[in-house]
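Meet today's protein:

…
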Amino acid sequence: MTGEQLERKICAEICHSDGIKAREIAKRLDLDRNTVNRVLYASPLLKELCYTDKAYRWHGIIRQTRPHDGLFEFSGYYGTAAEFLALEEGEWLDRLTEGCQRIGRNLNDTRGLMHSFLDCRKQMLRLFGDLKDMLGDACMDWETAFEFRLKRGRHVRIYADALVITEDRVFSLEFKMKDIVDPDEVLQAAKYVPYLEIVFGPDYEVIPALVLTAAKDLFDFVPIGESGCILPVCSGDMLFNVFDEYLRFLSDTEDTQPDG
C-alpha cells in the first residue's frame, strides 16, 4: 500500500467518525498502531485536515458526506450551485476575495487575478446554465468551491480553481484564458487528484479537467505526460460534455426518446 493510499484510508476513517483514536483506526484497517501514528504525525496534509482533542481522539475538519461540512474552511468561496447562481457578480467577487484572505490565498497581481476570477465565474455560470437545461433542478444542490487551498508542505500550496461536487464525483476544473493546450498545464490540472482523493475519500471519484476559456467548440482527451493516462480538455462552451462523459445524462435522454 502506498503512502497516499494509507493517508486516504486513515483520513476516511477519521472523517466518517465523531472522534476516533489511533488504535481504533489501526484495528479497523488491520494495521499496526505505530504505522497509523507515523502517518498521522508525519503527513503535512493529514495534520491540516485533521486534529486531536484532549482525549487523543482524531477528528476531520471536512466531513466526507454531503454536504461537505468544513469545505468552507479551505475555500475562497463555497456553496451549492443554487447559492452560487443567486449571487450578483460584485457580491460573489467580494465573498471570494474575503475568503481568499481568510485561507491565506495570495492576492498579489490583483488586476490580473480578479480578471481570472471573473472569467472563471463566467464559465461556471455557463456550465450550470447548460446543466440546468439538461438536468433541471437536479444539479442545483451540487456543491461548488472556488480557490480550494491545501498545504502539502511547508512551502507548497495547492490551489484548485473550481470544484464541482455531485453525489459521487468531484470535478476539479483548471481554467486557463488560452486556446492552445500546454502539456505543463495538463500536468497541473492532474496533479491535484491524489490530494483531493484524500480529502473526499473512497466514495468519490475525482475527475480533473483543463478548461481553455479562449477556445471554442473544443472537447478532447489528451495524454497526461508519459503516464499513459488521459485528461479531458475543453472550451468553456463545451464544459458540460466533461460532466456528461462521466454522468451520461445526455445518452440517457437520447435513449428515452420515442422512435421516429
